Amino acid sequence: MRKIFIACFCLFAVLSVHAQGKFPPVDKSPLDISFYPNNYAILKIQDKATEPLLARVIYSRPQKNGRQVFGELVEYGSVWRLGANEATELELFKDAKIGNTKLKKGRYTLYAIPTSTKWTLIVNRETDTWGAFKYDSKKDVVRIDLPVQPSGDTIEALGMYFEKNNNAVHLVMGWDDVMVRLPIVF
Fold first, then answer.
1. Exposure of 63 by Cβ count < 10 A (0-12 exposed, 13-18 middle, 19+ buried)?
2. 178 DSSP β-pair partners
3. What residue numbers bound the domain in which 70 lies?
4. pLDDT at 19
5. Does 62 map to a domain?
6. DSSP letter string over 9-43?
7. In this structure, are residues 148 and 117 in contact, taking their beta carbons and an 8 Å threshold?
8. I need a surface site. Which of 9, 26, 78, 185 has the fewest CB within 10 A?
9. For the segment 35-61, what is each residue's pLDDT rounded down to a tens digit?
10. H or E element, residue 2
11. pLDDT at 31
12. Is there a contact between 112 and 120 (Cβ–Cβ < 8 Å)?
């Protein structure tokens, strides 16, 4: 009888724990990751990686959904988390140089201050933040102005990818009808 009671109690405890947990709803701005070299994770498991992992960016992809993005949804002249939800994170797996600033390998948060002609891209040492609500300019390690370029096509969801360009890697960021390129030298 005691064994039955213990078994029933354990089953009840397990069911109670599972009944209380809920999966969160699907987010409107899904999380994404871009690597340099591109598709590094896939290449690694296939034993096809020919270059070491140098960088990755983790970001949420807000959607345009018929809205005017820059100047309205994303205010000109204001600090933007460079995506949705958690602030965008750049991880360097090797020391690098952005602009005239040398950065140690590690994790950083990316922010931007967009205008119609340029984005001031900010690399900040505070990580694991949501939005730009706790942005602290005292923790900036790089500020670099990047010219806005037309994307050629409308980009429905914010996108980021790495592109090799001579002796630098560019983090290309685009949304709506614009894009910018951040050169990173390893």
1. middle
2. 150, 175
3. 27-184
4. 55
5. yes
6. HHHHHHHHHHHH--PPPPPSS-EEEEEESTTHHHH
7. yes
8. 26
9. 999 999 999 999 999 999 999 999 999
10. helix 2-20
11. 92
12. yes
